[in-house]
Amino acid sequence: xxxxxxxxxxxxxxxxxxxxxxxxxxxxxxxxxxxxxxxxxxxxxxxxxxxxxxxxxxxxxxxxxxxxxxxxxxxxxxxxxxxxxxxxxxxxxxxxxxxxxxxxxxxxxxxxxxxxxxxxxxxxxxxxxxxxxxxxxxxxxxxxxxxxxxxxxxxxxxxxxxxxxxxxxxxxxxxxxxxxxxxxxxxxxxxxxxxxxxxxxxxxxxxxxxxxxxxxxxxxxxxxxxxxxxxxxxxxxxxxxxxxxxxxxxxxxxxxxxxxxxxxxxxxxxxxxxxxxxxxxxxxxxxxx
Amino acid sequence: xxxxxxxxxxxxxxxxxxxxxxxxxxxxxxxxxxxxxxxxxxxxxxxxxxxxxxxxxxxxxxxxxxxxxxxxxxxxxxxxxxxxxxxxxxxxxxxxxxxxxxxxxxxxxxxxxxxxxxxxxxxxxxxxxxxxxxxxxxxxxxxxxxxxxxxxxxxxxxxxxxxxxxxxxxxxxxxxxxxxxxxxxxxxxxxxxxxxxxxxxxxxxxxxxxxxxxxxxxxxxxxxxxxxxxxxxxxxxxxxxxxxxxxxxxxxxxxxxxxxxxxxxxxxxxxxxxxxxxxxxxxxxxxxxxxxxxxxxxxxxxxxxxxxxxxxxxxxxxxxxxxxxxxxxxxxxxxxxxxxxxxxxxxxxxxxxxxxxxxxxxxxx
Lengths: 289, 365
Known about the structure:
The complex is a heterodimer of chains A (about 290) and B (about 375). With about 290 residues, chain A is mainly alpha-helical. Chain A has two domains: about 1-45; about 75-285, MetI-like fold (Orthogonal Bundle), CATH 1.10.3720.10. Helices cover about 80% and strands about 0% of the residues of chain A. Chain A contains 13 helices and no strands. Chain A is globular. Classes of the chains: A mainly alpha (about 290), B alpha+beta (about 375). The interface between A and B is medium-sized, with 24 and 31 residues.
């Protein structure tokens, strides 16, 4: 009896619930989408206006459309030079970071040695170290190493600061690789490094892609460290370039908008390519669960 | 081709009371198919992994031919192993999986190609060479795992329950394929399984292990006909042998009114070493018959009849005067004439088909 009473109303409710659930989900996704899209569209459209239009007609369509802002930026040294610097710093950081983190994670994941967990905790503690707090001692250190206005002054600290999260992600992935695969490789004649290089890294491609994308995006958006380290405009990265633009065209907000939009494009293009690799599941099928 | 010899080989995991493998002495002949069998935790996989070099040998030694491999790293032992989960490399195609070990040994490309293709033909894998493991069925993956071992032409094959991830029908099929393959290749093979039917059907010889100790190693026939102790008697054969400990008389073992005859020497040794007037008797379900009341059988009350098609299994219980509860027996009979539930039937083992063991030590008399 009790069972029947309980199930009856819920059965009646189910279609009603579904009826409410679908529009609610749509509403949520539209709201979230709007929060993401509106600023981007505002930036793109704003780039096509001149300053007068921006102050009079901030939210409408440009009238007339002014391509001059984009053309100016695309033909200016003030854009291409920081773009090159950003790409170089991002790639160098990522390469260094992933290479070091993969090796450290391999040791943490596949070897049992005394003090492993303690050492791992020390690495993981770096997560709780805010970048902003470290900036002053970091600056002193970089200056002592004579790396001011040297790309290494940004690359090395960036790689070091993102090491903990990268190691945590990669270690988790490496630990999930079944021990029998390692044993099979050992019997096939692999050394420990051979297993790492020929089996583990190729298998970990989705994880490596994930941490690489994270590192590249972080480096691309990093503002504070380049600001402190790079005094010479020749080394400025894109976020600093905006600043410089801002000063140069103090009243020209439209140009700043155009600059920001253009500097997003390489990151978006990169993401479009990398996203495919982010999908995991490469191990599916090697071992029957 | 090679022989394998374990001499007093032991594996002791730190912090455990008894060795996982305890002083294993075993000689495996050239080209022999030896099966290690036993319940889970008996040390059969550990023994295999010691030979592979994946486990340390804490005491004793292991030889392949006359070469002491006890301290050699796995890759110096010239062995290949098939894992229970196959352990294929997921990012490599079937071809690359099979070629991997040869590639590491810097075998010339043309030779790798020839060997891989030959092996693929042998295992009917030609059509799948470019596929990744995840695009294969369970049986195909199993064959790739076999192929990866075969292509290396090792001195010894090791197989760690390679069939346990297949469904029942495929398992029976693959079982005979592996046995045929091994016979054709003539490579010494050590095979681990927990399934005694697999062990009996595949092995030239079968080694039965329990708690890290080798119980008996012999041909399947001898294990079945003359089990060396109570454990082997109960482990080999399905359904398991009826094994009961009963009072001992001058003439033999007493099951209610039925006396199973033992000769004088057997009675003597049954009484020694703490046997204490008791003897352990085993007889197989297929070695007995149901007889009428006056033919001297043991009366049991039927509580279950299983018909398997070819024959029927009759389960029933009787109170033996050994101080225990009612003891259960199983008898394999002709399915065309089965007793009803709760009927009392009379069971009599065929003459001389019973096995006698010392009640205290469990050793065969």
